Fold these 3 entries.
Entry 1:
Amino acid sequence: MDEGKQLTGTLALAVFTAALGSLQFGYSLGVINAPQKIIENHYARALGVSLERSLTLENNTDLAEEPKHPSVVMYWSLSVAIFSIGGMVSSFLVGFIANLRGRVKGMLMVNVLAVIAGLLMGLCKMWLPHIMVIMGRAVMGFYCGLTSGLVPMYIGEIAPKAYRGALGALHQLAIVIGILLSQVIGLDFALGNDEMWPLLLGLSGAPAILQSFLLPLCPESPRYLYILLGKEQEAKKSLLRLKGPCDTTPDLEEMKREKEEADKEAKVSIRSLIFSSVYRQQLFVALMMHLSQQLSGINAIFYYSTSIFEQAGVGQPIYATIGVGVINTIFTMVSVVLVDRAGRRTLTLAGLGGMCICAVAMTVGLKYQFDLPWMSYVSMAAIFLFVSFFEIGPGPIPWFIVAEIFSQGPRPAAIALAGCCNWTSNFIIGLTFPYIQALMGCYVFILFAALLLCFTLFIYFRVPETKGKTFEEIAAIFQKKHQMAKESTELDQLKTSSDA
């Protein structure tokens, strides 16, 4: 069967439906930033600490000059940070939810959380807005922690081998489209104003409603049906729905071998995965890939972008920031096209290496932008290139490569651990970056350049290429490495004992 004929309408529907969860994740990430001053003012009013002149919002510059009350700062910080905390906690439950009722029903179940979160934020003016928004953001973070694991897992399991990378990268594409959408809708003349901001936040839950109608039309993962439940006929039906009329024997044979291997092993929980020497290589690679994404400095770039654009004389820095969002989306599309041709390893190396060079250019631009006005444009160019390199490889690939390098048994636990690593490092960067920036000033990007260099070297020496390989072949690569490491350890022990 020609793999080119395997992109069916049912497969497209299933991937699109799953990616709606990722779109919601991206929207929730970006939506809180645009109306910050307006929301802070509503918090101040609800807390009874607002000044008389801040009761009208006709001139936002007044709000920027008005000193913020410590209570407002605390509640605002909590509104932003609670999202990551929710994600950190729920990422541990990805494996449990995925195996409880299956991937499709799992995604359907967690949509209840997204709708509740959307209602809490959308109706926040009916009670205390600061409490309602924080509750909504916490529930939405909890939902996004689950969906950021369930979506790549489902797409990775239903995608044909030849298109697994491209379809896997759609998770990140949907995230960046969600961020861009939140930036555009969050503009003052749209929903980012005094009257409409609760609707802006409440729309976070809208994709979950559409997804809930579409999920019952999507086939369950054949790998889940066969390997976990042992339902061969149902797995075959699911394969035929996803691939169209074809010979399912090769796929079923591969799943049969994987099931036999999984049956030999004890059930892989998160705890046993951490302490297992068999999966240590894969787990180390998975965690380092996610760390490379979050510790690359991408969040710092977004943090710095508005001030750099202001320094460069851009009249409306918010539009330049939206420009960064557009670049984000375009280059994620480039990654979707290239990932199954160039390969995961190649694109990640190119992305991290390019980001490293851009981080050095950023440092030079920031250092000399006051002495040499044209250096501001160097900084601007470095921002756009940094984002481009990020989305070519380090942005999308960590999300789906974890599903590729682990077999069916440990996959849910591995995705849960990698997701928790991603959310935790994201939270730590968000919490500590302002302090690191205050300490290091413009040299903060040298720190990121050093980290990027380390990640580039790690991926060059330790991460194999998974393009075009079956799950079985990828597992064999790591088993071979594990066996070599084991033999090397045994040899060292023999040498030590003979020397003694």
Entry 2:
Amino acid sequence: MSASLVRATVRAVSKRKLQPTRAALTLTPSAVNKIKQLLKDKPEHVGVKVGVRTRGCNGLSYTLEYTKTKGDSDEEKKAQLTLLETEMDYVEDKLSSEFVFNNPNIKGTCGCGESFNI
């Protein structure tokens, strides 16, 4: 059983110029550094899975979980389409620290910023 990592916020962003890439999800250096830091304390885990679940008042929500292996079904089409062009960032301020998903495809978010629809 995987444990959830941390809280994440969803933000709708305006359309950006597409850059050729093979990745559905890009990570900022800040997000990469935070994931490396989190995994340093969990040597039995090989990475973090980013997923999408149906929940929340607006339909969908991102999930983050530690993983010990990469399975064949880890790149499911539903998650790929929902993550397409999304940037995952990690931000810290005086009151909080969290992963933030900047997704130009989002049409709406809930008031608390934890769920979205496409």
Entry 3:
Amino acid sequence: MLLGAGALVGASPAYAAPSDLCAQVGYNAGFRGEGLVTAVAVALAESSCDPTATNVQNNTPPSTDRGLWQINSYWHREVDDNCAFDPQCNANAAFRISSEGANWQPWSTYNAGAHLRHMGEARAAVDRLGHHEPGPAPLVYPAESGRVVSARSADGRLEVFAAGADGVHHAWQVGVNGGWSDWENLGGPGGAELAIGPNADGRLEMFAINGDVLQHRYQLSPSGAWSGWENFGGGGKDIAVGANGDGRLEVFASGPVGVFHKYQNAPNSGWSQWESAGGGPANSRIEMEKSADGRLEVFAINGDVFQHQYQTAVSGGWSAWEDFGGGGRDLTVDHNQDGRLEVFASGPSGVFHKYQTDRASWSGWEPTGGPADAQVSSERSPDGRVEVFAINGSVAQHLWQTGVNAPYGQWDSFGGGGTEVTAATNADGRIEVFGTSRAGVYHKWQTGMSTWSEWAWLNNSSGPAVN
């Protein structure tokens, strides 16, 4: 359910073939191809395709999930009850909130994989509908890289990795949206930069690079145990990973002679050799994001220059590097609900912002204020607004869009200083932020639209010091 705790139990379908209703209104709303099949499967997991279904259990904050796609009354107040309980209006809202079927992150059943058991029934409903127009599958957006990284396992639980001087440390949620395990020390490269991404079969794969070595490890089964460390190449400065439209992972790493990349030859399979990415800034910080049409884009910044390159076709080759601005300290990239990309970069004068004005053009750089020379991260709130987090040695601050696809407000205090920050989303859509310091790893999470917990250790243990 949208911002709820899980699948609705005991919904009573009002139609003899409830999945047919979801297929019809989903098609009318604009879902196509595999995107329509996924939309019907999500609705089956959410409401059994009952347009009168409601749920109030385990919703934080207290709220009601409504209708076919269980649109939440708190996180989507713009959808009133008349719309939420009207099948077509509910489908139209789901199409908009899901970025036209590209992003199902706001639905907890999708995040936890509960929709997968309904895919056969959903596909049969789409087949009965008789429409087989091609359409995009949901996009898989890259996770933020850095000295602390987090991503959800296939069952919806967040996993987090933090880079200490003595290697990489790991903790995980013991239940979906729940508490945390103790930290475990995995060894591996010390003082590393990390990246994490999902294979096409749902297994997470994690990469760690320092000046001497690059290694990786991966889940042996979705949400399962992890392999040991394996060599992945020589040392470098930073690393990022993203999934191609066809499911193959692609890894970019920077070093003293520019940026290189390596990619899976087939989904869940072996890897190519390292290849030059055609230049790029030396010893740069790298982040990846995905355009609305599914092409990966790479952004790289060092103290002197900021450059950008992008795939010229989905799962295809790459453009030449293009100038993207002056140098800086760190960067983060996210996407609006309408698919346009948003880039934030920090430097000695604070945090600056640049965004797509359409799917092919960019604004100029605009100052936002914020902490000087900060580490920055971003994530999307359950209602689709981009939120930005920045931390330096003295202060942590927070900035967010005032509405979906809208301008930003003012920076607000988010706590004391630290060394690194990253943001991820729980299976129910709430943002969880991890901040590091020389004392260890803290986290802070949304308790409502604009309310947050206090900073706390994971499971009352500090984890590694991150310098």
